[in-house]
Amino acid sequence: MGDAHSIMGRGEIAGHSIDITADIAVRVEVIKGLDIDGPLLLPNAEDLPRIVRPFSEEERKQFAELSQDLGVVPELDMLPVQFIGTGKDLNTATNNAVTRAARFMNMSEDEILNRGTVSGEVQISRLPGVVQLSLQVPRRVLESKGLWNLVSEHYTL
Question: Is the pLDDT of residue 157 over 70?
Fold first, then answer.
């Protein structure tokens, strides 16, 4: 599990923090046949960056009204997933997370970069090279991987 911290700034920039002992409970589900090359995280909604949290009913209503005004159909059936990227430095780790997300979502890396720029976030987990790439993943992708029920249950939709 690693070491537990009573306090630590994002990235543990000096390579240390205030360590403590801890009892940790983690729920892990192994999904047989899921072809991924790195972990997927489903943080609690309140621990996610604001931009990738599940849409509220009010936000869905506002999107519906705006889409009618603009004549577009927004993709609203999406839920957040975090892709972990690792490497010798933050750029390599970010590229690794983008590659993992692109493979998982069956999208180009350019599309993942654009989704991450417009409606996602990269967070430094630890220096020199671990990041969390938070993205809204479309329902159709999660369903194709057999994950929609698990993720929607986690976010209580």
Answer: no
